[in-house]
From TrEMBL:
Superkingdom of origin organism: Bacteria
One Pfam entry name: Sigma70_r2
Gene it is expressed from: carQ_2
PANTHER family: RNA POLYMERASE ECF-TYPE SIGMA FACTO, RNA POLYMERASE SIGMA FACTOR
NCBIfam families listed in its UniProt record: Sig-70_gvs1 (TIGR02989), sigma70-ECF (TIGR02937)
Domain RNA polymerase sigma-70 region: 9-76
Family: Belongs to the sigma-70 factor family. ECF subfamily.
Protein name as it appears in the record: RNA polymerase sigma factor CarQ
Organism of origin: Kolteria novifilia
GO biological process, one term: DNA-templated transcription initiation
Entries under InterPro entries matching the protein: RNA_pol_sigma-70-like, RNA_pol_sigma-70_dom, RNA_pol_sigma70_ECF_RHOBA, RNA_pol_sigma70_r2, RNA_pol_sigma_r2, RNA_pol_sigma_r3/r4-like, WH-like_DNA-bd_sf
Amino acid sequence: MLAHQFCELYNQHRQSLFAYLYSLVTDRVTAEDLLQETSLVMWREFDQFEPGTNFLAWARQVAFNRVRECRRRRQREGMVFSEEVVRQLADERAKMDRHLQDRWDQFQQCLTKLRDQDAELIDLYYANDATAEEVCQQTGRGIHAIRKAIKRIRRSLFECVGRNLPGRASS
């Protein structure tokens, strides 16, 4: 049961955790290595995680400690940012993730406001990764009509997200 919980939470947050690490070390290979180290530590210490709390916040703390250890190793090699710079990068990344999550949540809300016909078109085009030509074949609509509709829907979604983000006055 514990293994299932860990795997489910880890898989749900793996990409965000990698992005966090990558933003701190700015080297893909190092970030991948740190993700592996972090995963092992998280697995060994999963019994210390409080169910119902923020798994990603806990994972970031474990990852941050791995970054600090990596920095210490690199410091001995003479290649390192100051502790303060790394902490600031970590804080900025956390703010960015919150902002991106807010935008994603708002995007999901805006999708629910689309007309059924527009939602179906977006689903065909993006969820199925179809080309405009393939959507034409599936819907019987012309290529120019499809491209124009996709452009209109994207603009509408963009405006909806921007209008409804937390901290912005609604129109």
